[in-house]
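Deliverable D5.2: sample structural annotation.
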Amino acid sequence: MAYAFKKGLEAAKEMDQEDILRDFRQRFYLNEGEIYMDGNSLGLCSKDAEESLLSVLEEWKTMGINIWTKPKVQKFLYQDHLGALTAPLINADTDEVTVHSNTTINIHTAIGTFYEPTETKYKILVDDLNFPTDRHAVDGQLRLRGISPEKGIALLRSRDGKTLLAEDIIAAMTPEVALVLLPSVLYRSGQLLDMQRITDEARKRDIVIGWDLSHSIGAVPHDFKAIDPDFALWCSYKYLNGGPGAAAGLFINRRHFEKPAGLPGWHGNIKETQFELNHHLDKASYAGGWQSGTQHVLSMAPLEGSLKMYQEAGIKNLREKSLKLTAYLRYLIEDRLTTYGFTVGTPYEDEHRGGHIALEHGEALRINEALKDAGVVPDFRYPNVIRLAPVPLYVRFEDVYELVERIVDIMENRKYEAYADKVGPVA
């Protein structure tokens, strides 16, 4: 949509006063004077998440082993409870979503379940812009089937090194392709793919398709009733604010509930017979059937508080504010920063933009380091991208305005020149 932004700090403050989500900011732990723009990598801790974690700790302290069955929300079924809280974010049935392990393991689980190669239909279509763990997992699954990645990978290459075209993805769905795994939002540029069109085309070709929602869930509402993918997976520590190493999520389309799990374990057994401890897996016929080992409750607990906050705020309201924040950031970049050589690598259109802006510059690494010392928490991605995520639950329009002013100061006074052009272990 078209946004009519005004210049100046007072205009930003006015938008904050009109923001129906403004009070949620008070429920997060924010450092005084700091502008947190890294929620696309690790979301902030909320008081709601803290409360749910402390509640589970108290249950463990007072109940011991009875924590599995005695609390109102039994931790033996915690994954079902959290899955039901997550499902509205993607418009899925509650039994199609479970909270499980981490993103990489969930990729292995999904590929192990859905990849059924034949002599003529055996390739897995991936793109060259995706986060590396997706490719590592796919390569590993191919090797387990005795197929070299060189033979089994159908690699879709970006034309510009930033974005992917739907028509290129569709053209790559050749008769040899058995499965497609793509990101909903590209982690560098923030491009949101046309999931509906791409999934529809895969279905026409009898190709299994799954989506990695790690950079969209909690920032972009998805309608899986309409999109109808075979599977999806995601991490929970970015926009969902589940905490560092939070348990990840897995969606299994209900039409596949009877398929064998690709990475089975005893927690995928139906609960009525799980403790009969049979060596034959009596797999549960819902997403919980893809559980493997015992769930890590303490890594799941903060997510409960966060997901309840999402229910309160409403994912559509969050998306509306997110789009306005990123559009405002782009407006300020074009108004204040282009003179210093900055460009934006994120698509302009709302329907093609996730929750962050890719700010590009030849000195991005050193500018990123200077921003940290200027009280901003940004996120560098090699070779020239500063990712900036104005997360709508806790970032104000005033923060976006101040962010750009701090960048102007860094550039005007060439403060970035004091920093080394070298990537550290965590940028």
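Annotation notes: The mean pLDDT is 97. The first strand starts at residue 35 and ends at 36.
The annotation will be released with the project's public dataset once the embargo ends.
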